[in-house]
Specification:
The protein is α/β, with parallel strands linked by helices. The chain is built from eleven helices and 15 strands. The protein binds 6-O-phosphono-beta-D-fructofuranose (F6P). 6-O-phosphono-beta-D-fructofuranose binds next to strand 12.
Amino acid sequence: MRRRIGVLTSGGDCPGLNAVLRGVVLASDKLGWEVIGFRDGFEGLLPPGDHLILDHRNTNGIMPLGGTIIGTTNRGHFAAKVGAGDRTIVPRDVIAGAKTILAELNVGALIVVGGDGSLMTAQQLQEAGINCIGVPKTIDNDLEATAMTFGFDSAVDVVVDALDRLHTTATSHKRVIVVEVMGRHTGWIALHGGLAGGADVILIPEIPFDYDKIADAIKARDGAGHLGTMVVVAEGAKARHGQQVKRDVEGGEFRLGGIGDVVAREIAGRTGKETRCCVLGHLQRGGAPTVLDRILATRFGVKAVQLANEGHFGTMVSYQNYQMRRVSIADAVNRLKLVPPNGELVQTARDVDISFGD
Ligand code: F6P
């Protein structure tokens, strides 16, 4: 049997996952490894195993496809994280079952493509003796250990496209339009999307806001003769002295969402203006990856195979200073990258008259 590298995609899907898989397959082939993909994240490692051989035939042409051809889940038996940073232990028998399957299939290294929670699981598998390499993925771009995750640029692209479309309707009707975007506990998608899409107000978790200040900004715009106002709100944003708005709780994990409607109501009440809310939701996770994400994902996939080939187990590929590097998974997990409230990007936004409602 040829030596084998395993690969799985875990957590919320995003554009670029298939580009990573393609990169892994092509780079592995060059180095003499066969690639075996596990379906539906870590669940594919549960006995009797759910897997398929990945080769140039079934990965040809997948780069532009959104989602992941081997499936994913952000729930299941291997969950190692609950809520914002709480770690749970993956049961011993679950890890033992995964080890057996990997040994039976002669898999010498496992590439885990996932966000913070999935990398926490990879860390526990690594501690249990499974050779893991991490590839950071999330539209939220919230991992401190890498300058960028793939999926982020594509998500921001969706936000910008939506803002461009909504701008004209806001102006025509002289309305306020509130656009709720993803990002969990960070405001990267809202900040980048809002800046590039010409938003007038951006609300992010890192800068708690005040409804009266938002209303003041809108009234000032009216006074200056602007016809419409675009407000971008991150799903994790909250009012000063307020709480994050949660949709539901599933197995100890909560889903954020709903702040857009609350903000729209408060604005309408304070300004008397017609206000509408548009929630972009999972649109931000679908569709073809941008050029930047295709290249980043390919580089991550290739680098992950090189790290496996050189035996650098327990590490994660990381993008720093335009280079592919490696960091230890243990150092990478549970370090949330927040938007610096006094950083240059926020200041630039303020300098082009964007209000943060503070
Ligand atoms: O982490 C990616 C993400 O899309 C977040 O921005 C969002 O809060 C969450 O996943 C949504 O998860 P689900 O797909 O379970 O609704």
